[in-house]
Design goal:
This protein has about 750 residues and is an alpha/beta fold. The chain contains 33 helices and 22 strands. It is globular. About 5% of the residues have low confidence.
């Protein structure tokens, strides 16, 4: 690479000092613990096995009676503290192993701790096995089983989604909601100990979601099955109703330790408090700066307020980072310090290095991907690294599209770790658009026809069943035409079918990006806008982002056929990764979300998309524009969580860190992330919309509400049927003179009303 691409400061930042962490002292137990101390033998044995604890770690290990809050900064050796403290309880305090409960968030972490405990000096494998080290769910399921509960556990996500689909089918709204997002919503309510009575019920869509929730719960009861949330809910109820059992558990588990405490949700916290209530010997270990799972029910105030709930709590801060070099730790410190809702801590580093974080400012996300791929190839070719040493971290699934495709085109070995394990083009909001392109090339693609039926307001399952039945008798060049004789199709829909076929015929002659814009402008954006059901569980702005990203991808191709062929290659490549996702030892670049990377570390990390609108995410920047009922301080809360996400990304790197800030994002100019500017002492250049939002936040609540309603509420035709979500914005004066009109979806009467426009 001849031109310089990487710099020590973000684009636009003046000549300011590069953030650097202080180098920590090398004081450890050999100097702290004197030979005449009663516990000296234990620490000497640890040292013989290569374990040297720093002063804060030693203090946490030695403190065994009463509540203990251990704030464990990134890379500060919290696992060593948990393991060594367990050994200390057994060896020095003579606590029986069966009286110790160690709670983790993953099965892998629990197994690792058991193995390390078993290898401690003076402890046997039998002692280690006697210690109860497990996840929340495994521990409480074992407890429930011991009390005679025999429910089958619904551990297969696809099976749970199938159950929801069957419920949607029974209700006649099969295309109204995504099962995955509904399940996530239900889980959020359950872990926060909320029921259907606390769910919104203003609209038909709200009431439908309530009904789905009730039916899902009823199905599980009738079939004697639980999902993971039910395990905790049932355990909580059982302990509430059986004080004798609770007392037995409190006497059995005299010492409780909880790992990754910042990820604890309300229900898990309540259970832990119940178990520790009688003795208060509760140690929690976590980092409030790494609370990034609020969407899963984790609450930052649980760890922040721990010392207010438990009296006489001791707080120990592990502030020495053993993972990253001074430059990486320094940048992390200066990024996270801007947050207000946090426990004050400044990490020190142990690794000195001439490598400092590097920043780059490509024009687009596609350029960003090319530069990273070239840099990885150069580093591997030099012999300095293997492919498995690299991680590329992105904020959301949509942000990985360019990188995924570039790595594929360059044939670099990589594994895409995705929560849904599907490529961008298979997302539910994107796939119907692509399937219109497929039909322009092959109008007899029945799978594609099935995909587009909801956009014609035709039931997917019944519609495709009719088409297949008709095709068995009479094949048509455009099988979609069969639906004109479908008894469930109204006259207005027949006209729409004709229009859609004419549109499909024209698409293959256009360039892909023009074809996609035509689909969106003609009907698809309006269809998404009117889909009230999806807006309950997915922000419509996120859907719009996906469609904008699709256009960005399509710009690179001249023909629809080339674009579809490329998409199919990407899908096939993704399918081939399924086995690799379960094997972190494979020598391949890791491409994953920042959330997925939490708890991991890599020699070289690339953080992509550190631009305004990506990181911080657009949803956080626009939190102040949300509907009534949302507290205005959530604007700050949303940005603070985004900053924590950036901090987690930075602190995954051990030796080298590269952060990209694309200048243009989906065709629009994007500023360098405020998080980077703040770290270098640069003022954040707010956009006009941000300035307006800040001004709104200073206004009294009633004035904010008036402005919000003026900007966001629209006059609309609203369907009067309780089983229909249809509504249409009224865009001209003539329509307001009409008393009512027919709903294009269900043919019921529509009356004038108001709707919130997303």
């Amino acid at each position: 690479m001849s031109e310089q691409r990487f710099y020590q400061r973000p684009f636009g930042v003046k000549e300011r000092p590069v953030p650097m962490a202080e180098v920590a002292d090398t004081v450890h137990t050999s100097q702290i613990v004197q030979d005449h101390d009663t516990d000296a033998a234990y620490f000497r044995k640890l040292e013989e096995s290569g374990v040297y604890l720093n002063p804060a770690q030693t203090e946490a290990v030695r403190y065994t009676e009463g509540p203990l809050l251990t704030l464990a900064g990134a890379g500060s050796g919290k696992t060593s503290v948990l393991v060594c403290r367990t050994g200390y309880l057994v060896s020095i305090q003579k606590v029986h192993p069966k009286n110790i409960l160690l709670v983790t968030f993953t099965k892998k972490a629990a197994e690792e701790m058991k193995e390390r405990i078993g290898g401690l000096p003076g402890l046997t494998e039998q002692m280690a096995r006697s210690i109860q080290a497990s996840t929340f769910h495994a521990f409480f399921l074992k407890l429930l089983r011991s009390r005679g509960y025999k429910q089958v556990i619904l551990s297969n996500e696809r099976y749970k989604q199938t159950i929801i689909k069957l419920i949607l089918k029974e209700m006649g709204i099969v295309d109204a909601h995504e099962p995955e997002t509904l399940l996530a919503l239900f889980s959020y309510y359950k872990v926060n100990r909320m029921g259907t009575e606390q769910m919104p019920s203003k609209t038909t869509a709200d009431k439908n979601v309530q009904s789905i929730f009730k039916r899902y719960e009823a199905w599980k009861r009738e079939n004697n099955q639980w999902d993971f949330d039910d395990i905790l809910c049932e355990a909580y109820q059982m302990l509430k109703q059986s004080p004798q059992l609770l007392q037995v558990l409190q006497e059995r588990f005299r010492y409780i330790m909880v790992d990754e405490f910042q990820d604890t949700n309300t229900l898990q916290y309540e259970l832990v408090k119940m178990l520790a209530d009688s003795h208060q010997n509760l140690m929690v270990v976590g980092d409030d700066d790494q609370t990034i799972y609020s969407f899963n029910g984790a609450k930052s105030d649980i760890i922040l307020n721990f010392d207010k709930i438990f009296s006489k709590v001791k707080t120990v801060t592990l502030d020495i980072n053993y993972r990253s070099n001074v430059g990486i730790v320094g940048l992390g410190n200066d990024v996270i310090r801007t947050n207000k809702q946090r426990k004050s801590k400044i990490l020190q580093a142990t690794k000195q290095s001439h490598h400092v974080p590097q920043f780059f400012h490509p024009d687009t996300t596609d350029d960003e991907a090319k530069w990273i791929a070239e840099d990885i190839e150069a580093k591997v070719a030099s012999g300095a690294y293997h492919y498995g040493d690299f991680a590329i971290l992105h904020r959301t699934a949509n942000n990985s599209r360019s990188m995924f495709e570039q790595l594929t085109l360059d044939e670099l070995p990589f594994v895409h770790y995705s929560s849904v394990n599907q490529v961008f083009y298979e997302q539910w909001s994107v796939k119907p658009v692509i399937d219109h392109l497929r039909l322009s090339l092959n109008p007899r693609d029945l799978d594609a026809i099935e995909s587009i039926l909801p956009s014609l307001y035709i039931n997917r399952e019944k519609g495709i069943e009719f088409v297949r039945h008709q095709e068995a008798w009479t094949k048509k060049k455009y099988p979609l035409i069969h639906l004109q004789s479908f008894s469930r199709v109204k006259d207005f829909q027949k006209k729409k079918i004709e229009e859609r076929i004419r549109l499909i015929k024209k698409l293959k002659e256009d360039q892909p990006v023009k074809a996609i814009r035509t689909i969106r402008d003609t009907f698809y954006d309006k269809f998404i806008e009117a889909d009230e059901g999806q807006s309950l569980t997915m922000n419509k702005e996120v859907i719009k982002e996906s469609l904008d990203e699709l256009e960005s991808s399509a710009k690179r191709f001249n023909t629809v056929s080339n674009f579809i062929a490329f998409i199919d290659d990407m899908i096939q490549k993704n399918e081939g990764m399924k086995n690799d996702r379960n094997d972190m030892s494979v020598d391949a670049v890791s491409l994953m979300t920042i959330h997925r990377a939490k708890g991991l570390e890599f020699p070289v990390v690339y953080v992509i998309g550190a631009s305004e609108g990506i990181l911080p995410h657009r949803s956080a920047l626009e939190a102040g524009d949300m509907e009534d009922g949302v507290a205005w301080d959530q604007v700050t809360e949303a940005l603070e969580e985004e900053r924590r996400i950036a901090y987690v990304a930075i602190t995954r790197a051990e030796n080298e860190l590269y952060i990209g800030s694309p200048a243009f994002y989906r065709g629009k100019k994007a500023a360098v992330s405020r998080f980077l500017c703040e770290a270098f002492g640069e003022p954040v250049q707010e956009k006009e919309t941000d300035s307006r939002k800040t001004q709104n936040q200073r206004q009294p609540h009633h004035r904010r509400k008036d402005n919000h309603e003026k900007n966001k509420k629209v006059v609309a035709w609203v369907c009067t049927s309780s089983s229909c979500n249809g509504w249409q914005q009224i865009t001209n004066h003539k329509e307001t003179q009409i008393q009512e009109k027919e709903c294009p979806i269900c043919k019921s009467a529509m009356k004038q009303g108001e709707k919130w426009k997303a």
